[in-house]
């Protein structure tokens, strides 16, 4: 497999030039499992490990390689094991706030062209959560599409209602209804999957992400949850990996996410609520927060019933959540940097005194 087929295009070439050294090889991270990596280069897939220097210098998990990353490696002894030296800049990424109290980003995957937000047509279906995922996808510079699975479990009019709910919230992404059982919708997905492009499946545990991959491969290659097993919250997929389909399209499977904290660093949440953004152009104040300002066009649209109330409230909620974390994040980065400078100057002093 050549690098181009793996998705290495002109953009990455430009961003590699300055980092490249003759003894290095270009590879892509194809699987990550608790600190262990599998990487693929022109010769095939091999295990890899971070150099000590790399692990030592990484200040946060964001700076560690994730599935989809392009990296520079060096062979260890033979060609069947590599050391990871550098990450080539990411063109796009999926990241969330680390679960719990940590104020840090956690990388999910990178260098993705299309992200499929997967929800199943049962109690998993939730437009507010969909909006949350959309923020994450658009922030990362990725095109979102929505897949509604398990359509075999509901009547067609219920499916139509669900689709209208998505539209009413102002979400204009492509929606693909799918049944892994009847096969309805798989052709539509196949048409979207392009050779040399990278796609990613994200969504709660148990919605059928891995089953879809098996459907596309035409064989039960990857482990899915046994039918009828309830045990909610148990994740079947545990590692993130990049799979190449028969037509050369790449697809990343991820474990279901229970918690999806939003931390938007440059306040791009507005971009995800297209209808609110469009209307805010008519607000009296340029910095209108759309909560109680006079002459707010967004509030007026909600009052007039032209803008969905629930979507508007979710917008405010996500914005507030994000601003809260963003503040702490900026503070933390400042402190980390100051500490880094302190260590650096101490080391220098010591060097001189030796
Ligand atoms: N009725 C029906 N069941 C499905 C469909 N797709 C998947 N399932 C079932 O849903 C269960 C969960 O599927 P998985 O593919 O393991 O779900 P997942 O999204 O990969 O879950 P995690 O790996 O835990 O994130 C399995 O028992 C599947 O057989 C579908 O279209 N219709
Ligand atoms: Mg899975
Ligand atoms: Zn306003």
TrEMBL record:
It is found in: Cytoplasm. CDD domains: YjeQ_EngC. Zn(2+) binds at residues 283, 288, 290, 296. SUPFAM superfamilies: P-loop containing nucleoside triphosphate hydrolases. Binds 1 zinc ion per subunit. Keywords: Cytoplasm, GTP-binding, Hydrolase, Metal-binding, Nucleotide-binding, Ribosome biogenesis, RNA-binding, rRNA-binding, Zinc. InterPro entries: G_CP_dom, P-loop_NTPase, Ribosome_biogen_GTPase_RsgA, RsgA_GTPase_dom. Residues 100-260 form the CP-type G domain. GTP binds at residues 149-152, 203-211. Its EC number is 3.6.1.-. The keyword rRNA-binding applies. GO terms for molecular function: GTP binding; GTPase activity; metal ion binding; rRNA binding. One of its GO terms (biological process) is ribosomal small subunit biogenesis. Its main location: cytoplasm. NCBIfam families: ribosome small subunit-dependent GTPase A (TIGR00157). Monomer. Associates with 30S ribosomal subunit, binds 16S rRNA. This is Small ribosomal subunit biogenesis GTPase RsgA.
């Amino acid at each position: 497999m050549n690098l181009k087929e793996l998705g290495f295009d002109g953009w990455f070439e430009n961003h590699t030039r300055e980092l490249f050294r003759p003894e290095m090889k270009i590879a892509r991270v194809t699987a990550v499992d608790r600190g262990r990596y599998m990487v693929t280069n022109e010769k095939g897939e091999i295990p890899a490990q971070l150099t000590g220097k790399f692990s030592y210098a990484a200040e946060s998990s964001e700076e560690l390689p994730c599935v989809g990353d392009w990296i520079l490696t060096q062979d260890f002894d033979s060609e069947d094991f590599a050391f990871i030296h550098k990450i080539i800049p990411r063109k796009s990424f999926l990241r969330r706030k680390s679960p719990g109290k940590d104020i840090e980003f956690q990388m999910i995957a990178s260098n993705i062209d299309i992200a499929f937000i997967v929800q199943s047509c049962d109690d998993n279906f939730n437009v507010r959560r969909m909006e949350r995922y959309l923020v994450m996808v658009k922030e990362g510079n990725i095109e979102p599409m929505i897949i509604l699975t398990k359509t075999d479990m509901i009547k067609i009019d219920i499916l139509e209602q669900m689709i209208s709910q998505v539209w009413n919230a102002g979400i204009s992404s492509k929606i693909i209804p799918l049944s892994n059982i009847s096969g309805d919708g798989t052709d539509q997905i196949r048409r979207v999957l392009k050779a040399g492009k990278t796609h990613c499946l994200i969504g709660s545990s148990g919605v059928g992400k891995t089953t879809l991959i098996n459907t596309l491969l035409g064989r039960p290659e990857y482990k899915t949850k046994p039918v009828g097993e309830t045990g909610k919250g148990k994740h079947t997929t545990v590692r993130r990996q990049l799979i190449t389909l028969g037509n050369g399209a790449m697809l990343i499977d991820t474990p279901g996410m229970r918690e999806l904290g939003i931390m938007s660093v440059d306040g791009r949440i507005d971009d995800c609520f297209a209808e609110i953004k469009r209307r805010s152009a008519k607000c009296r104040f340029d910095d209108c927060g759309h909560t109680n300002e006079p002459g707010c066009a967004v509030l007026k649209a909600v009052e007039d019933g032209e803008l969905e109330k629930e979507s508007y409230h979710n917008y405010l909620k996500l914005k507030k959540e994000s601003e809260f974390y963003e503040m702490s994040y900026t503070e933390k980065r400042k402190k980390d940097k100051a500490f880094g400078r302190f260590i650096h100057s101490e080391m220098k002093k010591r060097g001189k005194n030796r």
